[in-house]
User: Which sequence fits this backbone?
């Protein structure tokens, strides 16, 4: 990627997830437009992403489509489709663009790019020790210390994944879409009992892990939530300091900036 002389970076960031793909047009850190579509819809995704890229300032040098993925099955055909549909430069986090994040992990290469990008963006925003909760197909709960070092964390089934597992692994439990359970504490029917289980199970999981991290760190970190289910799960949870829906996309922007800064030095 090439941008010089302090020019504002303009990119379309794309985060290919297991279920959905989010994309957004950024000028610097400002998100101008965004959207999300199912990850298995290559043609629709390509049209939407190229449509955003066509709205980039044609005079700018620091322009690109930048793709991060945890779903190679979806990202491979998407990258090929994008390459045939636009002349804008296209880069992929990992092969083309590193995530400038210090980590203390046994196998750092095995960490998903979404987790690393979330950690990078969360520390940039909060400027102190922070736990990042990403609530989607899976729920990840990761810790970044006060120096911006990524320590890893935990991976658990997301609420929709858990509901599907309950249905597929049993004979009597129904298929239940994820919605917020009724406020009554006792599930009065099977559906409400299942929703209570996954909703409060997810919140309890996060609380237990944050307390565990705080004990190990000898200090209570801030907590940031992101992902498709974050607002429903944690929007009113006093444990969570902020819900930031587009954290991964912002991480892509920051990774681009750091890469360019390093290239200029």
Assistant:
């Amino acid at each position: 990627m090439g941008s010089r002389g302090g020019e504002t970076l303009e990119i379309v960031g794309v985060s290919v997830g297991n279920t959905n793909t989010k994309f957004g047009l950024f000028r610097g850190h400002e998100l101008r437009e965004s959207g999300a579509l199912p990850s298995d819809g290559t043609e629709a995704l390509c049209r939407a992403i190229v449509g955003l890229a066509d709205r980039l300032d044609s005079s700018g040098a620091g322009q690109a489509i930048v793709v991060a993925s945890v779903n190679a099955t979806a990202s491979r055909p998407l990258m090929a489709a994008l390459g045939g549909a636009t002349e804008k430069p296209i880069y992929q986090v990992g092969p083309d663009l590193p995530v400038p994040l210090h980590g203390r992990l046994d196998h750092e290469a095995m960490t998903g790019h979404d987790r690393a990008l979330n950690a990078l963006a969360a520390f940039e925003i909060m400027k102190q020790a922070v736990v990042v909760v990403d609530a989607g197909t899976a729920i990840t709960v990761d810790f970044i210390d006060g120096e911006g070092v990524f320590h890893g964390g935990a991976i658990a089934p997301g609420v929709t994944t858990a509901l599907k597992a309950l249905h597929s692994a049993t004979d009597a439990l129904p298929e239940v879409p994820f919605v917020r359970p009724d406020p009554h504490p006792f599930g009065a029917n099977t559906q409400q009992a299942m929703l209570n289980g996954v909703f409060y199970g997810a919140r309890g999981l996060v609380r237990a892990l944050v307390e565990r991290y705080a004990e190990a760190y000898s200090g209570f970190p801030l907590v940031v939530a992101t992902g498709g289910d974050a607002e429903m799960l944690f929007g009113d949870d006093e444990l969570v300091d902020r819900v930031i829906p587009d954290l991964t996309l912002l991480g892509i922007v920051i990774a681009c900036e750091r890469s360019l800064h390093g290239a200029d030095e």
